[in-house]
Amino acid sequence: MDMTLFFALLGFAFVASGTPGPNNLMLLASGANFGLRRTLPHMLGISLGHSFMVFVIGLGLAQAFHRFPLLQMVLTVISMAYMLWLAWKIAHATPPKEGEVGGKPFTFLQAAAFQWVNPKAVIMAITAQTNYAQGETWTAALVVGLGFLMVNFPAITLWAWLGTELRRFLTNPRRLSVFNWTMAGLLVASMVPILFH
């Protein structure tokens, strides 16, 4: 891949990774509820899990979606149901008692597995492989996956950090509850474009 195309890929990956979507809204909520250190496995799961998915999609999953549109529809239905369940969990998170945090953040494996049912993540991967991979070789797919790996973690870290900054404001259980319901609502709203795609 020539450097001009590679830098264009990095720009796309950074913008796509840093804009609001299910991953970033959940990181914002996790940072606010659990802090940056406890959210780190969630962040690593997103970054490594998504980069791996980008690579695998480059190896042929995108062609499978084109050949079997039902496969993509089934994945979309499953992902939307899962995201509704996550929104419910976020909205009903128990406000923490003094000095403790209720619930627990996503683990590395949960966050990595979530990438496969996150419509935004799948669409980002297909778009990247379609527009930036040069040739249908495993090395082209790998370069695109590595491009995402380079910029995804810094982009998503901002969202978790913003959540930790909100913690001071959210020490009041009522404000935390309003925040959690707002995050749940935004997560549901992030699914609306998928319905019209």
Question: How would you describe this structure to a colleague?
Answer:
With 197 residues, this protein is an all-alpha fold. It has one domain. Helices cover 79% and strands 0% of the residues. The longest helix is centred in the N-terminal third of the chain and has 32 residues, at 36-67. The radius of gyration is 17 Å and the shape is globular. The chain starts with a helix and ends with a helix.
Summary tags:
197 residues, 9 helices
Number of domains: 1
Q: Give the overall shape, derived from the CA principal axes.
A: globular
Termini gap: 30 Å
What structural category characterises the helix and strand content? mainly alpha
Radius of gyration, CA atoms, in whole angstroms:
17 Å
Helix content: over 70%
Number of helices: 9
How would a textbook summarize the main sheet?
none
Q: How many individual β-strands?
A: 0
Low-confidence stretches: none
Mean pLDDT: 82
Portion of residues in beta strands equals under 5%
In N-to-C order, the SSE pattern is HHHHHHHHH
Please sum up the structure shown.
With 197 residues, the chain is mainly α. The protein has one domain. It is 79% helix and 0% strand.
Chart the SSEs and their pairings:
Elements: H1 3-18, H2 22-34, H3 36-67, H4 69-91, H5 108-114, H6 119-132, H7 138-166, H8 173-189, H9 192-195
Helix pairs in contact: 1-7, 2-3, 2-7, 2-8, 3-4, 3-5, 3-6, 3-7, 4-8, 6-7
